[in-house]
Amino acid sequence: MTSMAGKLAHRKERDQGVGTKQQAVQFQQQDYEALRKRCLETGKLFEDDKFPASSRSLGYNELGPRSHKTRGVVWKRPTELCSKPTFIDGGATRTDICQGILGDCWLLAAIASLTLEQKILARVVPGGQTFDEGYAGIFHFQFWQYGEWVDVVVDDRLPTRDGELLFVHSETGSEFWSALLEKAYAKVNSCYEALSGGTTTEAFEDFTGGIAEIYDLSKAPAHLFKIIQKALNLDSLLGCSIDITSKYETEAVTAQKLVKGHAYSVTGAQVVQVFGRDVELIRIRNPWGKVEWTGAWSDGSREWDRISADDRAKLGHASEDGEFWMSYSDFMKNFSRVEICNLTPDKLSSDEKGRWNSQQCDGMWRVGSTAGGCRNHATTFHSNPQFAVRLEDVDDDPLDGQDGCTLIVGLMQKDGRRGLRLGRQLNTIGFTIYEVQDTHKGQTDVHLGRDVLLRTRSVATSTFINSREVCERYNLPPGEYVIIPSTFEPHKRGSFVLRIFSEKDAPTREMEEDIDVTVEETEISESDVDPHFKQLFRQIAGNDSEVSVFELVRVLNLVVSQRADLKTDGFSLETGRHIVSLLDQDGSTKLGLTEFHILWMKIQKYLEIFKKHDSDGSGTMSSHEMREALTMAGFKVNSAVLEVIVDHYADARYAIDFDSFVGCLIKLEMLFKMFKTLEANGSGKIELDIQQWLCLAIN
């Protein structure tokens, strides 16, 4: 109950703008300004108890307490490492970022690209932070995390060995913004070791809130150079890397000084004239700040003598700074993949370029209700969350010359790195896209069922992979589509963010049924009751001609125990009380003849529905059948309500027996009646004081 209240409170905060760039969430409820003020008032430097200067902040395995890699580690503040530390000296530049012993070159490559976009960098690294006046040993940074911006506080105690920083550091050794940024990012992900290994796109996304694409250069589209150029012109962030075939090749240097298994930044793409012929060039940055390509178009190569001085100036030709040019053809031959992070419309740029339209939807896969697995699992696939997107206008300047609507779809599962120290593995995830059929176009209160999806051919299916995110680009004709994100196997729990980027407006909504009830009120008189039923009732009710809760539960259990086709643990007193509360019209807390007859008719109806959805004849119903069964009984609920129902009424194997099914329907009808009684003028809301709330909740 408290976790559900927390979810509702978080949803309310989101509706009020918490988590946006303008109002970041305070990570772990730490308020930077309040903490800093307290430190200045007390004269004590900040010590972060949420991410302490201890071994558990370093790691759990290779950087764990017993690892040789952490022997001799001493946490020191910058004021202990040099006489005049600075936060940022003369502006943040790519040379401020040198890799330490941590295998997070992917992160450093992203930070290096970030320095080229000062407006974006200013978002991640808030201004006004210094080691001069007002220094309190506390700093803060802001990251995008699974759909919302978070403000992360850290102290400035950094891990060192022999007086040198263990991880990222600046070339000068006196500038500390990059080391503190790395620490804040480690805190978000639970520890430093959780940052070992990754893709540049992951950090790109967490620094910008953008959506990332990965292109395998062995299967690259013919117009990839044009995609790269357009992405750079739209202020996108780009990275590239060379695959390794074994761990022994990690950071191995090739004959032409390219580093395998290493993350580079792509910082430019230009076309120059060489003897009247167009040559496509790519500019690349090594986050080490050294070790550069020595082939054609490298620093000092003869190719530079073949172009004009104007072209050399345009290319910003430099030397021995970790940045170099190479031909696009050599780039395609030597590198394995390129990663592009497309930025959101609110990317802090005042101009109009780079204005992708973006939509974001949050969801969950809950075992037993919304974790249906991929299309291979026909009986549960329809249970997954569903999202509709409408494409109306084709792109203005299609890259491949074919009219259509560009759609970039990204499915991201949450908190993967934080789960590493607990041994959790990422789910294998992906999504399927269908075109919405005419019978459902424009509908906002529908969740496509099994029959509809099984007889409809999908438009596209993404790769299914156990990574943080699956992202793919499509060119689709105008129309209405439904995207179904799923794990590959059913019954896998997880939370996700689905994001959709498009060149033109693409309205998106979750396909959910409106919560409603259409249960008919039954009114009968004693004269309508069959004489045989009257006689049966008198035998049950006894002298007072009314059935108490205890008598009701006894007779219901007697009836169901005689049916071999039903599995049941028996009706509980709680269910009995709900039945009486629903049907008792005279306030006697017992059921009279007509009230008992109405109950009997309900149970007959519920039994028919239950048997129809007991597809395997097991005597129980799969919880994945619950949505359709509820609809047949007159109740329309969305996924959020369905998840609570399954949690409450399904057993450990996510099966629902007959008494649980009846108890659920009775409780739903009672709750709907309560709400309608208290609802103000059809507003869809009720207002209760604490006494009213407690009385209703306990009832």
Keywords:
alpha+beta, Cathepsin B, Chain A, 4 domains, six-stranded antiparallel sheet, five-stranded antiparallel sheet, 25 strands, 20% strand, elongated
Describe the structure.
With 699 residues, this protein is an alpha+beta fold. It has 4 domains: 21-208, no CATH class; 218-342, Cathepsin B, Chain A (Alpha-Beta Complex), CATH 3.90.70; 357-512, Jelly Rolls, CATH 2.60.120; 526-698, Orthogonal Bundle (Recoverin, domain 1). It is built from 20 helices and 25 strands. The longest helix is centred in the last third of the chain and has 21 residues, at 593-613. The two termini are 16 Å apart.
Helix and strand arrangement:
Blueprint: H1 2-15, E1 25-26, H2 32-42, H3 55-58, E2 74-76, H4 78-81, H5 105-114, H6 118-124, E3 138-145, E4 148-155, E5 158-161, E6 164-165, H7 177-188, H8 200-208, E7 211-216, H9 224-233, E8 237-241, E9 263-274, E10 277-285, H10 309-315, E11 323-327, H11 328-334, E12 337-342, E13 357-365, E14 387-391, E15 405-413, E16 429-435, H12 450-454, E17 460-461, E18 469-476, E19 479-487, E20 494-502, E21 508-510, E22 516-517, H13 531-541, H14 549-561, H15 573-583, H16 593-613, E23 621-622, H17 626-632, E24 635-636, H18 639-649, E25 655-656, H19 658-678, H20 690-698
Parallel strand pairs: 1-4
Antiparallel strand pairs: 2-5, 3-4, 5-6, 7-12, 8-9, 8-12, 9-10, 10-11, 13-20, 14-19, 14-21, 15-18, 15-20, 16-17, 16-19, 22-24, 23-25
